[in-house]
């Protein structure tokens, strides 16, 4: 008789030290919240900065979530991801400006309707653009990282110039919808309405992505493809179509993030996506390749840390995120929750 195969150890089977080590990435956010509270001292200031940091983190997560899946599943270094952020912002803001009567109306329903239409338009355009980008630019250079960097950077530059041609070279300033302006007061802190909306959207998206990846067939195929693409293809699934779908979805999420960031800043430029890619790549790297959960935690850490440091030591804020990335990678070289090993 052969011995029964040993079962895979669960969290309950592990020693306490190992369980704490596995849970540390999740614990980093509450630890940072407590440290921020102790350093700032004033509860109302801490709450305002915390909501601001969470909102910033959620918007970065929206942009980074698609890119980390593209990294993990397709092994593609896509510097052109920033172009989808910019295009999404311009398409969404065009919708907002085109429905000025709705945005100026003192009706929350109409204002949210404008934002929803802007988001849908931006995601549709950037999803279609992502499909064309993958077919024309990325497909010929699968597996060649240096060429991927060169051609995707080239694609980013071309799309930025097309934005100049279509929308003009100047910055576009605009106002948020009427009911999303201003702030509400809670516990002596001024909490901007739009930042609260951004936090809610980010949480809903994160929960939806977790449910899709853990409870649907396509989600399981994507997760399996990230971990072992050859095995998935051997089982008869057309992973190439999954590649295309993930790339389109990632591009659409970048467009969504672009709209949210544009409404947050109330100004858009053709180079805004390129500027945001620094934070997006930091989040993807410290979160771990292919990990949506890692990107979520990493984005919250980046948003919170930048807001806390900017309040406490403004000069240090410029390097705070680089310092965070360095510390995380010294602790866990593959990122906090990697699904695949860095190649």
Automatic annotation (TrEMBL):
Membrane topology of this protein: Multi-pass membrane protein
Gene Ontology cellular component annotations, sorted alphabetically: plasma membrane
Keyword terms: Amino-acid transport, Cell membrane, Membrane, Transmembrane, Transmembrane helix, Transport
InterPro entries xref list: ABC_transp_permease, BCAA_transport_permease
Membrane-crossing segments per the record: 20-40, 46-71, 83-102, 108-133, 145-167, 194-213, 241-264, 276-304, 316-333
One GO BP: amino acid transport
Pfam families per the UniProt record, alphabetical: BPD_transp_2
GO molecular function, one term: transmembrane transporter activity
Subcellular location per the Swiss-Prot or TrEMBL entry: Cell membrane
Highest taxon in the source lineage: Bacteria
Protein family according to the UniProt entry: Belongs to the binding-protein-dependent transport system permease family. LivHM subfamily.
Full protein name: Branched-chain amino acid ABC transporter permease
């Amino acid at each position: 008789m052969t011995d029964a195969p040993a079962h895979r150890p669960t969290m309950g089977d592990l020693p306490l030290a190992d369980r704490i080590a596995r849970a540390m990435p999740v614990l980093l956010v509450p630890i940072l919240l407590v440290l921020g509270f102790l350093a700032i001292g004033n509860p109302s200031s801490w709450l305002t900065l915390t909501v601001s940091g969470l909102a910033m983190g959620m918007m970065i997560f929206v942009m980074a979530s698609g890119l980390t899946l593209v990294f993990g599943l397709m092994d593609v270094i896509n510097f052109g991801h920033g172009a989808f952020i910019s295009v999404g912002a311009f398409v969404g803001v065009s919708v907002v400006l085109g429905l000025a009567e709705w945005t100026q109306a003192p009706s929350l329903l109409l204002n949210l309707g404008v934002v929803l239409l802007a988001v849908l338009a931006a995601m549709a355009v950037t999803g279609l653009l992502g499909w064309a980008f993958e077919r024309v630019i990325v497909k010929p250079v699968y597996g060649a990282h240096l060429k991927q960097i060169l051609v995707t950077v080239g694609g980013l530059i071309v799309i930025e110039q097309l934005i100049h041609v279509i929308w003009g070279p100047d910055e576009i300033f605009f106002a948020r919808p009427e009911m999303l302006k201003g702030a509400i007061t809670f516990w002596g802190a001024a909490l901007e309405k739009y930042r609260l909306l951004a936090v809610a959207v980010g949480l809903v998206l994160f929960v939806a992505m977790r449910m899709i990846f853990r409870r649907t067939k396509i989600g399981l195929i994507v997760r399996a493809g990230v971990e072992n693409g050859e095995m998935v293809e051997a089982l008869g699934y057309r992973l190439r179509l999954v590649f295309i779908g993930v790339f389109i979805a990632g591009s659409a999420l970048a467009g969504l993030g672009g709209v949210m960031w544009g409404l947050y800043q109330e100004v858009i430029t053709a180079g805004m996506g390129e500027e945001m890619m620094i934070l997006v790549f930091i989040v993807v790297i410290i979160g771990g390749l292919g990990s949506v959960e890692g990107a979520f935690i990493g984005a919250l850490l980046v948003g919170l840390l930048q807001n806390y440091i900017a309040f406490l030591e403004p000069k240090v804020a410029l390097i705070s995120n680089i310092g965070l990335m360095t510390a995380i990678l010294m602790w866990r070289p593959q990122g906090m929750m990697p699904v695949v090993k860095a190649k």
